[in-house]
Amino acid sequence: TRDGMSWHQVHLYGDFIQGVGNWDAKPGGLAAPWYARFGHSLDALDADGDDLADVMVLAGGNNPTPTNDVWLSTDGISWFFDGYAEWPKRAYHSTAVFQGELYVIAGTPLTNDVWTGRLVEDTTKEVGYTIQWTKKMKEAPWLPRVGSCAVTHIFNDTEANATGDMMNNTTHASTQALFILGGLAGYGEGEENPDNEPIRARNDIWQTTDGESWTRVLPRTDNAVHHWAGRAFHGCTSWANKIYVLGGGYMGTDGNNEVRSLEAYTDTWWSSDGASWMKTNYEEGSKEENNLYSTNEWTEITVESGRTVYRGKWGFSLETFHPSHQDLIESCSSDANDTCDQSLYVIGGKVEGFSMVSDIFTSKQGIKCELVGVTCGNRGTCTLTGCACDSTNFTGDYCLDRKLEDQKSSAFRYFGIAGFVQVALYILLLCNQLLDLL
After folding, report:
1. Which of 248, 316, 333, 401 is the most exposed place for a label (fewest CB within 10 A)?
2. Strand-pair partners of 314
């Protein structure tokens, strides 16, 4: 697709090799050279450092059991076998491009290892490239997990933020960090489990700036819980200077109970640093009472009676995308509208209680302005870059923060001259009463 609306199925070419893929399929048909699969990863890497993706990398997944085969393509049409990766076979792993390398993280069978792949030129390959794999960590400090989400994000340095200079618009250095968020985590049967940790969906967040040293964003204490609930198979991405987390669901142990089928969420959250989170959508009711409602339209589904219900979704693709049609690009120069801005796309997925879907939802500019369904706190106008606050007294992402110059201390209050005289007389009266007692 070039615009996110019109989609065209691709006729495929490449390495149709016996034993590793669909060797008996006809080149130029609709079947890919690689075996059908699910739970795999698809990423794009920059080969020459110009910040433009050159090669797509398809890796791992179930076909129908976990595999570690790797396929490369420069156009999405011709796919070439790059061999079997050095990392163990896996599916539902997390991937992200960080500091120019492809990170392959965790997955099933449950593991907490970290691998990196570096794209290098190889003239002996028809595709012109190959990937060199390196084990970054045998065991990361977080629990083995599956269905987690990895994202690369750039944010202002924590120490710089702590100085408070951000209020004065002082420019600070930025840090690129790799985050891993949530997932279904624990230890498999027969594995050593020192803390007796059950397998369940988590809401822990870990980050690294070098791929080797991982730290938890918030410490493991009772008063340091991330606002979004534990989840797996959710979507996450870095967009508009924020990390977004959408959907997914909970399964695993829940107290004395065990949730065996995933209970999906209808929410959207964002954070600028991975520590403080804001929920953008409004929701009420419950699916048990059949009155669940969410302002996230990607949760809408129409039942046979024609009634619209709202259900959580998981296993979808969350992408950032900018339409590339020339007519859209030209219209952006004269008319700033939703089609001109890079948007979030929620593609497909599994709706709780229903079948898999092939629908596509795209964000509108309101996603940057709405908090629990209210636009700019009713004190501003939503623009392509966020809220433009109308009131001179309020600022912030949602026009909810009172400007510092308009704040007044509640510790002291100005009485005026008359007030001062009244206080002085009151003090004099108390002194006279004390003298009488003496």
Report:
1. 333
2. 350
d(CA 330, CA 385): 20
Residue 25's alpha-carbon distances to 37, 40, 408, in angstroms, are: 16, 21, 74
Mapped onto helix, strand or coil, the DSSP state of residue 355 is coil
Give 434's strand partners: none
With the C-alpha atoms ordered 366, 371, 375, 381, is the resulting torsion angle positive or negative?
Answer: negative
The strand pairing partners of 361, in sequence order, are: 346
Q: Name the residue type at position 435.
A: L
pLDDT for the residue 51: 84
CB atoms within 10 A of CB 253: 14
What is the sign, positive or negative, of the torsion defined by CA atoms of 78, 71, 29, 124?
positive
Task: Name 428's Cβ contacts closer than 8 Å, sequence gap at least 6.
Answer: none
Who contacts 146 (Cβ-Cβ below 8 Å, separation ≥6)? 92, 93, 106, 107, 108, 110, 183, 184, 185, 232
**H/E element, 387:** strand 386-389
| DSSP 8-state class, residue 164 | T
pTM > 0.85: no
Encode pLDDT of 31-82 as tens digits.
Answer: 999 999 999 999 999 988 888 899 999 999 999 999 999 999 999 999 999 9
Query: Of 32-36, 39-43, 169-173, 345-349, which range is least confident?
Result: 169-173
CA distance 145 to 194: 16
Looking at 300-415, list the stretches that DSSP marks H as alpha helix, in order from N- to C-terminal side. Answer: 326-332
pLDDT tier at 163, thresholds 50, 70, 90: very low
The owner of tokens 């790797």 is 70
For residues 203 and 147, the answer to whether their CB atoms sit within 8 Å is: no
d(CA 351, CA 312): 6
* Beta pairing class for 268-271 and 278-279: antiparallel
Q: Measured between alpha carbons, how far is 106 from 52 in angstroms, rounded to an integer? A: 27
Q: Position 429: which residue type?
A: L
CA 301/CA 281 separation, integer angstroms: 17
DSSP string, 215-241: EESS-SSTT---SSPPBBS-EEEEETT
Residues 214/142, Cβ–Cβ less than 8 Å: yes
CA 66, 67, 70, 71: dihedral to nearest 10 degrees?
A: -70
Q: Which of 104, 128, 133, 105 is nearest to 118 (CA)?
A: 133
